[in-house]
Amino acid sequence: MFNKNLKLVIAGLIIAYAVYQFVEGYIGNGIFLIFLSLIFIFLYFRNEIILLAFLRMRKQDLEGTKKWLDKIKDPKAALITKQQGYYNYLNGIIFSQTNLTTAEKYFRKALKLGLTMDYDVAMAKLSLAGISMQKRRKREATTLLNEAKKLDKNNMLTEQIRMMQQQMKKI
């Protein structure tokens, strides 16, 4: 909603006014304003639109996720680097249902920009491995599967990895 730099400016102004409230003796107002500024700082690191898109993704609503992501007009200006990674990651998941070439482009860009969670990196590499298998690039798919297996520390993707390895033997 707000530009990423505007969020920091708003947080700074609120903190400055909180300090003024402390100096004037209104401790309760100052504490409240500090907490209010923390919301803007949180939203600087976690974009609100991407959070809402993830909520839609959890409900398996790909169209709703796409609508939320389309509200971000210029991801480079509106998002920090990790958020751009998740923006591309979500777009990759959406396009993996319809257009594999576009999905591959988004997943590669997401991995290049960086994802915070190891599970998300493993999921992106697993998806890339599936796309590589579809395009008959067995060596690349094998390396991506091995990397995904290493990143999957909680064994949440072991079944999908095992299924892909069985499919790779058939190729």
Description:
- The protein starts with a helix and ends with a helix.
- With 171 residues, the protein is mainly alpha-helical.
- Helix 3 (48-58) runs parallel beside helix 6 (81-95) and helix 9 (138-151) packs antiparallel against helix 10.
- It has 10 helices and no strands.
- It folds into 2 domains: 1-45, no CATH class; 47-170, Alpha Horseshoe (Serine Threonine Protein Phosphatase 5, Tetratricopeptide repeat).
- The chain has helices at residues 4-24, 27-45, 48-58, 62-70, 75-78, 81-95, 100-113, 118-134, 138-151, 158-170.
Features:
mainly alpha; Serine Threonine Protein Phosphatase 5, Tetratricopeptide repeat; 80% helix
Blueprint of the fold:
Elements: H1 4-24, H2 27-45, H3 48-58, H4 62-70, H5 75-78, H6 81-95, H7 100-113, H8 118-134, H9 138-151, H10 158-170
User: What oligomeric state do these chains adopt?
Assistant: single chain
Which architecture of the largest domain per CATH?
A: Alpha Horseshoe
Count every beta strand, where a strand is a DSSP E run of 2 or more residues.
0
Rg is 21 Å
CATH fold label of the largest domain: Serine Threonine Protein Phosphatase 5, Tetratricopeptide repeat
Number of separate domains = 2
Q: Hey, roughly how much beta strand do the residues contain?
A: under 5%
Range of helix content: over 70%
List low-confidence stretches: none
Order of helices and strands: HHHHHHHHHH
Structural class: mainly alpha
Would you tell me the overall average pLDDT?
A: 89
